[in-house]
Each structure stands twice: as structure tokens, then as C-alpha cells.
Amino acid sequence: YLRGIRLPQKQIKSLTFDINVKANTVSELSLVADNGLQLTMEVRYLEVVGGYIPERFQITSPDGKVDDNFEVKFVEIDGFKLPSSMVRVIRRPDLQEDLEVLFKDYRVNQPIPEDIRKRLESQ
What we know:
Blueprint: E1 12-20, E2 25-33, E3 38-48, E4 51-60, E5 67-77, E6 80-92, E7 95-102, H1 114-121
Antiparallel strand pairs: 1-2, 2-3, 3-4, 4-5, 5-6, 6-7
């Protein structure tokens, strides 16, 4: 797991993964830190040709003090699944945060402008 998901990185007493062997994905991760903190991260995926794309991470604690959510909504454009929005909500005693990012006006496989192509070729 990564630092950006806000899970402890050190002093982990227990780390458990629930793996979906048919999809080759991690559906749940549970950890217990030395300080007693218990967190569970559930992961949901969007099935696409050739595999799965994570679309939702939910991190919770048994006492309800931690309730984080990161969700990506996808749209199909020219045969590609691309994000249309990302929402991150963090609810912790020391941090309350909401972030939404919207994506629009995709242009897929457009020709590279001549001036940029020349700069790339000269490198």
C-alpha cells in the first residue's frame, strides 16, 4: 500500500490481505499498529478488457473515528475508460477534508503539435 492512502507505514503489528484469486486483486487490507490503531481498507474495482481498475477505496476503523473514501468515476471515450471525476473524503479526528477533481474535454490520440514534436526529436 502507498503513503497517499494515509495508512500507517511503520510499527505495524499485523497486516492481512484478502485476495480475490479469480480476479487477482486485493479486495481488503486490514492492519493493526503497535499503538492499537485498527484500520480496514476495502477496494472495489471496475472490470475492463484485460483486467480491473481500482475505482473505490474505503478506509474505516472499528470505533468509527476513521472513515475515508476515495472514488473514481469513469467514462468511456473512444474505447478508453478514462476518469470523469475523483472524490476524496477524509474523516478523522485530526483531519476533515473533501476534494473533488473533474475531468472533461478529453482529446484522445490527437496529433502532436509540430513545435512540440520537433523539441522531442531534438532531445
